[in-house]
Amino acid sequence: MKKIFLLLFITSILFSACAAGNTTSTAKPSTTPSATKKPQVESTVETGSRLAVNKETLKGLEITVWTPWYGIESTLFDSFVADFNAQNEWGINVTVQSQVNFSNLYETVTASLPTVEKPDLVIALPEHALEWNADDFVTDLTPYVNDPEFGIDSNDIPSVFLEQDISEDIRVAIPAQRTANFLLWNETWASTLGFNSIPADPQDFRQQACRAQQSLQKDEAAQNDFMGGWVVDTEPATAYAWLLAFDGGVLEGNNYRFLKPNNIDAFKFLRELSETSCAWQTTSEMDPVASFVDREALFISATLENLPTVARAFASVNNTDTWKVIPYPAENQDTLIVYGSSYVILDSTDESQLAAWLFVRWLLENKQDARWVEATHLFPLRTSTIDLLADYEKTHPQWAQAISFLPQGEVQPQAASWRRVKIVLGDGFRHMYRVSTPSGQVAAILAQMQSTANDLVK
Q1: Would residue 21 count as lying in a domain?
Q2: How many domains does the chain have?
Q3: Which of 42, 83, 313, 355 is deepest in the core (most CB within 10 A)?
Q4: What is the pTM of this model?
């Protein structure tokens, strides 16, 4: 499917190119030999910058970047900074400061915004950027993206990545990293159970999960009788994916609405899976990945970052089962939740904003983009970067499968309040399992979530 996705993308580019090339009409031959030909008027392409910044003023300019990373990501980003400082033609100097995690970064940046100590560039979560934008501290990146001289080809970035950072007609940020929440499915085990394709819809998912559980009841081990189906995951992104799979959601206009029929159907479906032991919960001592490898779970929820860990777990026990990335099955559009951090340029001088943008543009180049993928195992941000990742793709087939599902990707709510409301979603979802809410009473949980969410955004 990835090949189809790329083929469609390339075809659209070629079609656009051909259309552009066929816009010149052919004049009919003149019937008068002495007719004078009119001079051809050639169209001109704007190449100069519209940002009104003298490039000479960038020389020696220093900008500060705050990141949420530590470990591999922090080390790699530090090397990027060193490379950019040594190579960039404008003489811009970037300094970087790690804030260790997203929560600390949000608090520190928010406190710095009214001061001269605020950074020029931040790698932040979209809901954080939206909140800062509401307080007029964020630079609209639309003019930078579209600038004839300093812009980028936004058509080379999947739309599901770009959509996350839009607020009305303002681009508050641009993707820095993107991952996804999806399911993992043991194809080999499913085949032995009589299933030769991924679940087509929720009912098919239920049938496969239940048959896996029933198969474990037939073996000699009594301790695994409740296992076999989907390992319950109560992360907010998982809950949100299931709501969308049932054509539900959390927003109605600008208000949060959890209590609606499709959401009730989703939660009722999930509780019934547990009530029939077709879904089960691990204890704190149990690892869902180990259960997946040991054929104690036909399905588990995962993200791109988890895939190398899963692959190593299979290899460590010489398990040759084939396993795949699949979206959350739906009646209509299967669901893949795409999410990740973004580059946010804070308001400052025109020169500092352009300098920060030039650094971001360099980070988004194919070479740096490919290095991010190989280090973090996340999505490439540029479609064209895939050309540099042929070897990586061969050794990471599940990563390639995830890319093939990007056209089905969905973003989380584009609202600053999502920072708090996603916690409500996760807490409500966990509570439903913690107190073993009967499937017929899930509406009460959704009603409480709706009330709490709306209280938070008053």
Answers
A1: no
A2: 2
A3: 355
A4: 0.87
